[in-house]
Amino acid sequence: MTPKTPLIKIKIQKENFDVSEETKVLQQNNIGAVVNFVGVVRGYDEKNSQIINSMTLEHYPGMTESEIEKIIVDCYNRWEISGVTVIHRIGNLKPADQIVFVGVSSKHRQNAFDGCNFIMDWLKTNAPFWKVEENNFKKNWVCFNDSDKKALKKWKK
Amino acid sequence: MTPKTPLIKIKIQKENFDVSEETKVLQQNNIGAVVNFVGVVRGYDEKNSQIINSMTLEHYPGMTESEIEKIIVDCYNRWEISGVTVIHRIGNLKPADQIVFVGVSSKHRQNAFDGCNFIMDWLKTNAPFWKVEENNFKKNWVCFNDSDKKALKKWKK
Amino acid sequence: MIIKYFSWIKEHVGKSEEEIILPNHINNVDQLINYLNKLDKKYNIIFEKKELIKIAVNKTYSSFDKNINNSDEIAFFPPVTGG
Amino acid sequence: MIIKYFSWIKEHVGKSEEEIILPNHINNVDQLINYLNKLDKKYNIIFEKKELIKIAVNKTYSSFDKNINNSDEIAFFPPVTGG
């Protein structure tokens, strides 16, 4: 019953997103399981022990969308899934703001979990976004996180 | 920064739930990652090739809540997580209705993924709910799914 | 002693709950099942294949050899199918 | 050829994008980097530690030995930090 043409939605936007609305889009095929990941802006940089007042996200228009699409196609080749939505915000965001949504629907809940987890890991390491964190004293370009690279190891075939 | 007293919410209810609202509850601690599982009523029973018009869920009041609490405590002992919400609907539901919500928040996205996946697997096998599927011709108590028992193997320590 | 039934077991017994006085010589779940089987043949079909039955004593999963007394709440039900 | 810069690399170069005419003798990304390094010392700090730099040619991740020509779009940026 899984449609041959899967539902794919990719949005790079300044606006916030509504998790309920996005979940409904992923439920369109009466599919049993939806797994959502929602990333939220933190108010504290633990590594450098600094408060974060806001952060600004920039990206590489065109490349971002095509990289995310490659990740989703790879996901479809690995698991039987019926829908994927990726929404990533750009521009200025404040602590507690939602920053990223990845939702995957499938007949089988484990596929939905694995697909969502897989997309998040690859998004973190391949999608061309850059964050700069700001407080009253300075701005600080966020460095690549080594644990994100390690996270990819679990998807080696 | 993870609070010592985690946020735990367990609800067994007839009413629908709002995924956005529940995600906000889980974001209360400004925590970086929220993973949600949303289960949806299917309109077709593939195993028996039958249309499903509706289903009715019953449960064992008191035992349900205490079993879910045990699962959540086990989850907290395994991973560093900061909040868990489990909402399970009972009563009569129609295809495409939301049936279950499991949300887990954590500083670390892999913990949120693992915690949510773990709770779903144990919920499926331990929480005392029973489904009866109805169509125009008959009602059919849903049988235990063997793949749900197999799913538990990945959590053996 | 309160005995609860769920799902198709409830439909076979014809009620979701009943109260019995537990005879003194009955000390565990297995003995209770034997007692019910003799009491009325409607129980036979339920307990025919015991491996398909789950038991809770005081709302906690229990085994057939679990000790019980008259103040306990016992429940018989098929494997669960939530989520 | 359009060259794009992102994140702190953009701030070092002082612009997000520039257009150059690619000299004929420059055939790959490595040669382009050498050319830019000689053109202006502002590029030196960026390309000093090449292993910290990511490259895209026509919006696809590429290696330093990737062949390029004047109609390509090249981007230099640090490792990504989205999500």
CATH class of chain A: Alpha Beta
Form type of chain A: globular
Largest sheet of chain A: 4 strands, mixed
- General shape of chain C: globular
Average pLDDT level of chain C: 95
Q: Give the helix proportion of chain A (percent range).
A: 25-40%
Class inferred from helices and paired strands of chain C? alpha+beta
What oligomerization state is this entry in?
heterotetramer
Can you say what the CATH homologous superfamily of chain A is? Molybdopterin biosynthesis MoaE subunit
Helix content of chain C: 25-40%
Report what the structure shows:
The complex is a heterotetramer, with 2 copies of chain A (157 residues) and 2 copies of chain C (83 residues). Chain A is an alpha+beta fold and 157 residues long. In chain A, a hairpin with a 4-residue loop joins strand 9 and strand 10. In chain A, 31% of the residues lie in helices and 34% in strands. Chain A is globular and about 50 Å long. Chain A is built from 4 helices and 10 strands. Chain A has a 4-stranded mixed β-sheet, sandwiched between helices. In chain A, strands 7-5-9-10 form a 4-stranded antiparallel β-sheet, with no helix packed on it. A two-stranded antiparallel sheet of chain A has the order 3-4. In chain A, helix 2 runs antiparallel to helix 3. Chain A has one domain: Molybdopterin biosynthesis MoaE subunit (Aldehyde Oxidoreductase, domain 3, Alpha-Beta Complex). By secondary structure, chain C is of the alpha+beta class. Chain C has a single domain, classed as Roll (Ubiquitin-like (UB roll)). Chain C is 27% helix and 23% strand. The termini of chain C are far apart. The model of chain C has no long low-confidence stretch (mean pLDDT 95). Chains in contact: A-B, A-D, B-C. Chains A and D meet through strand 5, helix 3 and strand 9 of A and loops of D. Strand 2 of chain A pairs antiparallel with strand 2 of chain B.
Spell out the key features of this protein.
heterotetramer, A: alpha+beta, Aldehyde Oxidoreductase, domain 3, 4-stranded antiparallel beta sheet, 4 helices, C: 83 residues, alpha+beta, Ubiquitin-like (UB roll), 5-stranded mixed beta sheet, 5 strands, globular
